Amino acid sequence: MTAILQAHALGKRYGQRQALTDCTLELPPGHVIGLVGPNGAGKTTLLQIACGMLAPTTGQIEVLGERPDGATSQLARVGYVAQDTPTYANLSVADHLTLGAKMNPGWDAKLAQARIEQLGLNPKQKAGKLSGGQRAQLALTLAVAKRPELLILDEPVASLDPLARRDFLRHLMESVAEHDTSVILSSHLISDLERVCDYLVVLVSSRVQLAGEVDDLLAQHHRIVCTRRREADLPAGLQLVSAEHTDRQSTFVVRTPSPLPADDWTAEHLELEDLVLTYLERGLDHGAPATTRPRGEAR
Ligand SMILES: Nc1ncnc2c1ncn2[C@@H]1O[C@H](COP(=O)(O)OP(=O)(O)OP(=O)(O)O)[C@@H](O)[C@H]1O
């Protein structure tokens, strides 16, 4: 299957500020991909490059098999909802649908109409008079009705109350299931990502720290608690993600694609939130992805 997004050594610099560093990713189709990272991590930068709104400084990227260059044919295949869910304040809801129909060759007028009715939006209402949640829903409707192959959503639920957020995500999931769309969704809200995402990318300090299918990542990561020991004394082949020590006890988070070897420790799998927080912390502390200690090498 062709990747929906393939990036190699992608970088973006704004003057002195490095916003994205050495980003190599291959995102498979058919997933809802959660992009998570702290403020300023580079999420918006990556998503804008993917939409062809920004040019990278270094590296290459392909989205749906093409270089994103803002060409109309590609814009029709990618739906983008920016962080501030932009709409035209002076245009009515109906005007937005008319505009969507004019600008998008694959526009699904029936779908757009049905969603507006389902949401209870008044077609005559000016977008400037809608609530933040309603504006986000309108922006999502415009993006979904393009019938894109890929939907890119940059923190679309950030300003919504919990109920509006739940509705937004429910509508998103419905339309994804119905139309077989791939989605990249950035959010700070891990509980939301947990609800809708089956693939995860963690970006910290401009670098990708972790990427993979959520089920695989959860299966491969373990929290180990044992009497105090050095990292170097862990069995070889385990990828050390984090280590904490008290006088008597050590707690490690490790990753291994194989079953965890039996040892004198207690081990448990991590919840998604713990996994994300571990990599966020690690990224802020070290600025580099975790590495595996090869057999025989002491740290
Ligand atoms: N137009 C710009 N000019 C200069 N620096 C910028 C510009 N846009 C972003 N940056 C910087 O690039 C870095 C990455 O920003 P980006 O908006 O991609 O992060 P983000 O992960 O989306 O953050 P947030 O979660 O706060 O939205 C930040 O340090 C930011 O200050």
TrEMBL record:
InterPro entries: AAA+_ATPase, ABC_transporter-like_ATP-bd, ABC_Transporter_VariousFunc, P-loop_NTPase. Coiled coil: none annotated. One of its GO terms (molecular function) is ATP binding. SMART domains: AAA. It comes from the Bacteria. The keyword Nucleotide-binding applies. Gene3D superfamilies: P-loop containing nucleotide triphosphate hydrolases. Residues 5-230 form the ABC transporter domain. It holds the Pfam family ABC_tran. The keyword Transport applies. This is ABC transporter ATP-binding protein. It comes from Catellatospora aurea. The lineage of its organism: Bacteria, Bacillati, Actinomycetota, Actinomycetes, Micromonosporales.
